[in-house]
Amino acid sequence: xxxxxxxxxxxxxxxxxxxxxxxxxxxxxxxxxxxxxxxxxxxxxxxxxxxxxxxxxxxxxxxxxxxxxxxxxxxxxxxxxxxxxxxxxxxxxxxxxxxxxxxxxxxxxxxxxxxxxxxxxxxxxxxxxxxxxxxxxxxxxxxxxxxxxxxxxxxxxxxxxxxxxxxxxxxxxxxxxxxxxxxxxxxxxxxxxxxxxxxxxxxxxxxxxxxxxxxxxxxxxxxxxxxxxxxxxxxxxxxxxxxxxxxxxxxxxxxxxxxxxxxxxxxxxxxxxxxxxxxxxxxxxxxxxxxxxxxxxx
Length: 298
Ligand code: SF4
Description:
The protein is mainly alpha-helical and 298 residues long. The chain has 13 helices and no strands. The protein has helices at residues 6-16, 20-30, 36-59, 72-82, 90-107, 123-135, 139-159, 164-167, 169-187, 192-206, 222-241, 250-263, 280-293. The structure holds iron/sulfur cluster. Iron/sulfur cluster binds next to helix 9 and helix 11. The site of iron/sulfur cluster has 14 residues, from helix 9 and helix 11.
């Protein structure tokens, strides 16, 4: 029987002397509807879609159905190929390109993996695939990283929310960053406790982030929040691997996220009535969509 809190999962890791991915796999098996082979088959499918969605936007201009976003991932790739990126190195900028690619593919109605939601679909693929590429990790490592991410996500589902409509963007992109960072820390040799510290710090960094999609479309500011979400995940992973720890327990961070989400006014929970969605720029973009639909967009 699994009680899905960080404390309980950590206890299982220690009591059973298992890594976080192993406890995550035990949890999946405990649901009783899949064998390990079936779970691995699902994971392989997820990895294939992660790879294709994080690549497509970097290779071709992918435009959303509304015409509001598109082409940014390709711009980032071209920038990488002809410039010396400002932030650290090629690695981080390429990770942002991957995250934006997934968002663009999502907005163009292409195939993505909702991780944990479609709005936040770029953060986990970008973090895990970038780390895997840099250190030449094999597919088994990626599968295990996904299992780590999944158990962290399940704790949010069980004790808070992963929905922007319920808890704001902190619940979507925040949860995705926490899942990604916990996975990356695992990949880099961190122990179970370190993964929970990473997840906690990621949440603390975005606590209170509202959900204010312009025109109610999962495009603006979502795509760029995926880019900042992967930067959050990767930079927090470095902090934790350097030995930095969260002074606030992971479970308390999840509770705080839940409480802040519940207190958030409806304007900031995916209704497109507040924040960026209410700005003059957003109104201008509405006209742009009309023109796009009529085929007159320049
Ligand atoms: S702004 Fe809202 S719709 Fe967009 S990614 Fe964040 S939670 Fe999802």
